[in-house]
Predict the structure.
Amino acid sequence: MAQVVAKGSGCLGAAILSVAAQAADGLQYEVRIDAPADVRALLEHNLDLVRFRGNDRMDREQLQRMVRVAPEQIRTLVATDGYYSPVVSARLDRDTGTPLVLVKVEPGEPVRVGEVDLTLQGFAANPDQPADKRFDVNALKAGWPLKKGAVFRQEDWESAKRATLRSVVQTRYPRAQLVESQATVDPEAHLANLRVVIDSGPEMRFGELRIEGLKRYPASVVSNLNQIRPGDYYSEAALQSYQSRLQDTGYFASVDVSADMSAILNEQLDAAAMTPEQNASAPMAPLPLLVRVVENKRKNVSAGLGYSTNTGNRASLTYDDLSVFGLRMKSALTLETKKQTASSNFYFPVTPEGYNDSIGASFERSDISGEVTSVASIAGKRTWGTPLLERSLTLELLTETKTVGGVPSSQSKSLPLTYGVTWRKLDNLLFPTKGYALNAQVGGALLPILTDEAFVRGYLRGVAYLPLGTSSNAIFRGEAGALASRDKSGVPAVYLFRAGGDQSVRGYAYQELGVPVDGAITGGRYLATASAEYQYWFKPQYGAAVFYDAGNAGDTVSALHPKSGYGVGARWKSPVGPINVDVAYGHAVHKYRLHFSLGFTF
């Protein structure tokens, strides 16, 4: 067991490594390294004198031998860090009770990168191709990582070659090779001139789609998600994107999407039998697009227990069937203290144009802030786009029964159509720290068909993440909504607005802010909320937050007197997403409230 004690300050310092014996017969000794911090760290991890300390076979003769060869080993090690002209000394001090090895290194001026000769063979532009379809050779050269003037470190040199070759083989040249690499070091001039030659090999294109592993589900589940067409240039990014889309369907336990390189091997065997003239004129065979899948079980049942600071205790039961009349079915029963929901949805295979269509039915009963509602609905929905820009269109037929305080029950029906769009520009979709997400909805029930009260509704919600340093960031949230109708009482409560709760104004109960009616809180025509939060991460996975929320809902804009809430919270980056635990004080109600939430809600 070793203990490291650092002495000195600034660029230079010394480390004394006190070594406890790991065996009774092993020689105990200390090593003191006097060198700049970066060099000292390199030697502490790699120098034999340090690595073999405490070895049970170590004796005085072995120690003396290692001291003699240490300077040469040190020169080799520091050269990998860019120092080619170091002044090195190593000696054994026998005057101390425990043998002490004194190592001193003056690394001198580091060698820096001089001229970089990056030669690209075979990347000739095809004059028949549009300029935006050609391989950008200039961008590849400009992206060379080890720039002129940088310290020449062996690790950086190897990494630069790997990264550059990788950026080529991920594109239309998967057979590209590094055919030459040379670093010419001039220790006196402290310069290293670099030469790298990459041969592109032939351009490769995708061929036809081949599917392996399907047994229960139709081939359209795989083929409809394929955006790669025969004749497209090979692209590793396209393969990864296709694989990700297939994994997200829920049909498969595992997915592997690749180009079938065996086609190249067969072509090479055929080329061996050709004359040079025939070989030169023969086009490269396209690479078949190969999809290998392992299907998930068709049916799955799961149950769970939980608790929400918004809606109370929770018990849930879900049943999924991946093939009901060729559709994917998801059913769920959720029983909460304040809300009970039963739903069943059927999802069609994604169309070749990228549309995700679904139909479903649900029933929900809720008792929140004195308003009791029972809603039965049938809906059809189409979504399309990407995680960065997602759009949806929903047509819903619903009937609602509502009881508010002592007011007799009222019934309403409606057939609204809603268009929604979500923009995301985030550095990480699971743990965002920079960027924004924005969701907008507009719709309503305008036609007198299965609708008691015509209305138009708009809603906007956004969140922005601003990094303030390596360990802190700010989060800003806001939402606004408005509804226009002649008589609000005929509009289903789900399309009105209330505020308060974990993802709204903290310090207040779930949907506690709205329009008071007979001792209950009902939805209003207008909504406005805002939130500002500061987070500090004292460890990579754990942090703390302070926040201030404000907002309200009402039937007029002038009634939106903001109710504020503020407090502190704890943050944990769990494997399933960020977990937030907050204690907030509701200024208008003069009460503290605990809030718990999981994940990023966009």
